[in-house]
């Protein structure tokens, strides 16, 4: 089985970290291909960047020409899952949703700990539209941006663990979801300190993708996620029309 | 007062129709500038196209260099309002949301009649995230695509009126919102046949934009819609990096 | 355009203050007529007073014999909008609902700051029935009655700003709605101190009334807000049956 | 124990019918006093009439000078319960809410069958604000007004039974609540034909009032339903200021 | 009228305490029979124990051979009400639901104060499935187990009153429900200290059972609570197959 | 990896069918052990039977003495998952919930098709408590009992496909979940006829169990699903106290 894991931003180091997490999580026999879009932001902290990344990811998928069995979208709260579901036949898993699915399987309620307060809205929206908000006790922000987390992992650990502690104590979360790709590795620290299971989204996405593929199931094409009708789309996929300066 | 009305697709005839509706709806003294993105689909019927249009619209806004007082996004159920709110200071109104606001002011419940069944999901999502779904009796599809509506307005009228009638009779809608830019002009036919008020989204967006500007209010920048943090974004705005072939 | 703004209580000074706010908010060319009922409470802080004011307001509307284009009901959380919608054809705007509509147009979430804790229930109920509660982060009370606000505006400012601050910090409100007619003028103070937009209900109601009138729309009469059927109603409108002692 | 049952309209025949139902439902030892307001509509089918009746009922309660143990408000979907709770200390039961309470005790879901389609909104609102809408499968209208039901009970029986049948078959209601005072006596017909229990609101209100009184409980006065603060209220209670012509 | 009150655990002292509360609450002429199952836990604090008690209670009901008019299930948050409704014809009242019903009749919102934090989930679930969660401000735990409450009533009073105080102050509860059978007697202490009414579930259950019986109503058998179809059930009722060692 | 799949009823043929489905769905290297309780109903169609099966399943788990990695509960809508989560450390998956999880991964909305109308309530409750009801378009019944399905698979296929068709056409379901263990094999028929993916609960449960185990995660023991406190439980596990006649 081959799973394409897509880092929605253009940071190569983040793609590498995601690839490592995905490979560690995958079953023996599963091949992980980690990729990133050709354009867009180096990190995603707002709606403008999220929309742009959604397009860059769809572009990447349309121009990716190897066969594969499933897609995992490694942005936590980013737009785009529905669009990718339309343009491929294989299962498409979003890591925010995957985290919530797994969290609900192992606990009565979960909280997400993410980066900046301004990103909370996007995660709440994604969980709500996916029908996974009901068991969400809270989405909390540790106050550090994606790039901050990348730069100072020790300070990030402290901030995230503190916020997770508030989620457990004040919001009665029984599981913690790490709401940011760069937070990989924090799970051990949190479980050790708080005694609650911690779900890593990339790992969850990979394992759920394996499960859906293993069941022989694919995205329903009967209505909402049917392939786009043929029509004139100017300059699409955009990557084919970008000047060499853009690369 | 100057309002920029953005057709999210690349169809010039649709931009012209939207401009006409917007101008007819505007107060004396309001100038309407109707524009369309440089790239993207000629009509929007699915998530892939909606995401792409959201980016093309943001691109257009970032590269639009005249002063203006408000933005109206003339896509019914398209993505992008939150992103545009981040990158400009003036009020940003989405026409699906504007329709729902006005419908709730004049009736206990409303239904939306849109084009294809597959577009229902996008409209439901937009209304839900905007906190405007509670008084929505239904989102119904007449079964014709945006391009079909454009091509055969008479058949479209018949199909839309029939669906509106079901909304009033079966879902107890007391107001009908026309869920597609190309449906302008249908309102008179529906009101005449069914006796319910009909809200045109473009008209509603323009008048609500005037109201918010008149109140001296702007988008809250305190958290979710704060301007994007400066960071490296590859090839953005994309229009600056497109080859001449793309234009 | 002529808008009738109705103060639901019998305090002449409050009617004057509301008139001033309404006129300042109105577009050039809009005439504001501010009126108050002939009977009922001098301020409204509970359900008994709210029900009585709803009847006194309907009575006023039934006996008001000049032509006009819209009605704005200037009570925040009071009963009566539905009843007035039944007895007039022109649009009827309630200021609590108008505040919420505008707040949702300019921010992801809003809080209402009102007077007494006991009034919170009425505001929550009104927003909920209007389908506008979903984006309401909280309804908070500053602990002062309507009359207290009237008597000591400086202390009121302090109390309201403090409560708005809690709404922004603890409930993540991004817009504040002033939940009491007598709070006009506080908006500048709050915006200066907290950086969030503040919506005044009377101003919002006037501008939204202009928008709906401008769109050529009226209340749907197809079902819930159809005119009352003719029937025997004893002593109605009550004002015609009151003794001279009551005036 | 003495229970005051208040018919919210001014029809003496309806008061008599309500009194009979209430007395038949009451326990031995419970005295029922059925009363009606001095002014207002002879039947209540819309919000204007409902608001007026709420005031007339509060007026009646304020001027009623015998001691009693509980109040039952015999309007199905009418306004006013909260106001009466403020002005008396004893328990106050509304019959729409009482029906729903009892229906939930004996079945998984219930439907209300009321008179006119336009009254559905008021009942839905009352159930929703009371926190009793979740198990409500539907509120259906038989298409006859309160006065129609009064005039032609046989036709009404047929219409109500037909609508109840739809509620059971299509909405999966397991209990039927009769949504109109004048429908007393229909319960036997419906149970015989459909095999589902039927709850009469007046009877339910009386028995629940006995239960609450028997428990030694009274309305919480700690916040929302505290007595109104003393203040100037012009011409209140209105009945004291009505001319003799009004009586 | 004869009401069977079932203590779901096997503690004889708790059965006696429940019997006393039930008898004090019952109307003159109501006979209370308090019983307990033949097997299962001496106190119920988790789902395993709750499921076991549900079966033991159904077993008890199936093998109880005297006639009676209603059943009151005296476990707060325990499973089993639906099962008992299937196997008997008479009304079945659950005390958590009964508390919530009565609380909603006398206040705008209520909180439950229960024993351990881990029991909160079960109570929330029961209220939610019963459609009674909407007016529930919070379910709070005092941190003591059912057995702790039994052993040290003075410490329990202190802990429960402190938690009730938080519910009133922070969650704006206007009524308190005692979420544990062993808490009988605490109501006077809480009302004296906090000024809010306190509902005892056993008392509420008995009085509501009287009301439903008095109305001549029984559980709807039309669908969900129809009697179980005849089929082979191995070793049921279990009590008939238990060895003498089990008794 | 070893997964214990528990048929909650006592039918050996159903256990065999479940075992076969589970084995076909499992990854290479996963061992499936299919078991059934020692007492309880041969099929489960109501709450009484469901409660009894929950206890019989917990009993089975407590007395099962081999090591294993996960539990799959193969009852669709039955009680008991929370209780089993308390008494074991390994992940516990319920098949109704597993179906819904997978359905949400591959489609915007799903419907469940189950056996009898009376079982709809139990499935709706389970999905709701699991926080998975939001994307559920409907739970529909084909009108045949579990035993009917077993006896006449051809007629069952017809009835189930017809109901699935209504779910797709009228409720806009995009995925169908088979709501009954005995329905295995119907998925191919439905997908062929309706073009929508069909999720089998047992298969979904097995694959999700593999995923959670593969992630190294276990049920959160921090609060709700902590192990039961030691206490006196009379005759538990019941199987140890049953007479030989019961076996």
From TrEMBL, chains A, B, C, D, E, F:
Q: Which domain of life is it from?
A: Bacteria
Name the InterPro entries on file: Asp/Glu/hydantoin_racemase (IPR015942), Hydantoin_racemase-like (IPR052186), Iso_Racemase_Enz_sf (IPR053714)
Please name the Pfam families in this protein's record.
Answer: Asp_Glu_race
Family that this chain belongs to = Belongs to the HyuE racemase family.
Descriptive protein name: Asp/Glu/hydantoin racemase
**What is the native source organism of this protein?**
Microbispora corallina
